[in-house]
Design goal:
single chain, 245 residues, alpha+beta, SH3 type barrels, Alpha-Beta Plaits, 3 domains, 3-stranded antiparallel beta sheet, elongated
Length: 245
């Protein structure tokens, strides 16, 4: 019994080429003609919206017709087209669903919740939504970013506690100390932590550098969730202590 008959037909190839070019030219023409015919109204919006869908369905129908047609008139081409169609279908399926798959892996492996401040790769902000395909991140500017999971699946995630380590600011200040230096430094640390702009999870660092005529030079490192808070903290400390010099 013969299952395959690898016949060759030039007429079948010419017919296929004619339909292929005709469909392509037709939709290229419609793309420019539809906006000219329907200048206003809902008809233009409807046709413009659904024309790509109609084109996709026609191309899909054409592919199935081509495979069947070549199997009848030119089996070698039919087998080749069928194999190509299967390969493209697998690739297209992976392309469409890969963000869903990576999203499941990302959410299962990372302890991230909404309204949490994170830094991931080149992105930094507050998590607003963990959707099926994207991580919705609000930047400090207020802009919302929809980041596909495929872009961040292999990135290191810094959670809120870790992200605060990045938001640090150091400056030097001279103060007049009239009591024990260690007690003064401890009091100053407590005062900095209690400021509304400071991080309560990171204790500030204060190191004495030198002493000249009773003036102590301190190197101070403070932490905050927002970099814009550093000026307020430093300005408050300078107004409170340096004015006594």
């Amino acid at each position: 019994m013969i299952f395959f008959d690898f016949t060759y037909s030039e007429g079948a190839i010419y017919k296929f080429s004619f339909y292929l070019v005709s469909i392509f030219v037709l939709f290229r023409i419609l793309k420019y003609v539809v906006p000219l015919i329907f200048l206003r109204g809902d008809n233009r919006k409807i046709l413009t919206k659904y024309l790509p869908i109609i084109e996709f369905l026609i191309w899909l129908f054409f592919i199935f017709w081509t495979i069947q047609y070549f199997f009848l008139h030119n089996q070698l081409f039919g087998i080749g087209l069928f194999a190509l169609f299967i390969a493209l279908s697998i690739w297209g399926t992976w392309f469409v669903f890969r963000d869903y798959i990576f999203g499941l892996i990302f959410k299962n492996n990372r302890k991230i919740v909404e309204n949490q401040s994170i830094k991931i790769g080149e992105y930094e902000g507050t998590v607003r939504k963990l959707s099926f395909r994207n991580l919705v991140l609000e930047c400090r500017s207020g802009k919302l970013l929809q980041i596909p999971y495929t872009k961040i699946i292999n990135e290191v995630v810094l959670l809120s506690d870790e992200a605060e380590m990045v938001s640090s600011h150091s400056f030097v200040m001279q103060v007049l100390v009239k009591k024990d230096l260690d007690d003064f430094i401890q009091t100053l640390k407590t005062q900095i932590v209690n400021l509304p702009w400071s991080s309560i999870k990171k204790i500030p660092k204060i190191y004495p550098m030198d002493s000249i005529n009773g003036l102590i030079t301190l190197e101070i490192t403070v932490y905050a969730l927002e970099k814009s808070f550093f000026f307020r903290i430093e300005n408050y400390l300078r107004e409170t202590y340096e004015k006594k010099i």
